[in-house]
């Protein structure tokens, strides 16, 4: 078995993948912590042959995790943000300072769609752009839905936005404080994603495919106007592309990769931008 780990600042997601069939056998999540110990909430390491890790947690958390796994597992692969990989040139002035989860998303998106915009809706909402030739432009970091709600300190943080809510409903004025907060932060998030995507496509003269991942991907995606695909395993896809361990991965097939929708034309993007500026 292959254990894939996506260690975030608050949540660590994992999945077990069959090394022979490339099938996903199980998956789960635990709270990120300083001391990562085997228990009921993590997979049985006795069946694991190799581990791949993407981590944005503190260095101490990653070091402790790697030490534990290397004591139990034969091969441990740790992803790093580097100046160039898999045909993509990192757009950061200091490439190592780009969050590795963002870098994994960029690499996965490029392998799947060529140039693209990758959007990760987690604690923060990140947007990264890579052009068809492989030049990563850099990106944007916005506060995520939960972070925006916590910043308001109005006692509504524990009432989450229903991911099955329709976008039209979430964009209406709230008639209770919790609704006003939820609808306000939703409006801020989706408006920012829509505007940033359109502005960058306009500036670069290219209509890019758009891929969305992260814990709040389902709800945010309902308000994204451009054609897009949700890819829950996009960070894992980057790990597969960087460290291919199965026959399917070596052939370039990434687990759970969606069908990429054709983007609208650049002319329509520019017309939408022009209209919004008149309002």
UniProtKB/TrEMBL annotation:
Pathway: Cofactor biosynthesis; coenzyme A biosynthesis; CoA from (R)-pantothenate: step 1/5. The keyword Nucleotide-binding applies. A monovalent cation. Ammonium or potassium. It catalyses: (R)-pantothenate + ATP = (R)-4'-phosphopantothenate + ADP + H(+). K(+) binds at residue 120. It holds the Pfam family Pan_kinase. Homodimer. This is Type III pantothenate kinase. It comes from Halomonas halmophila.
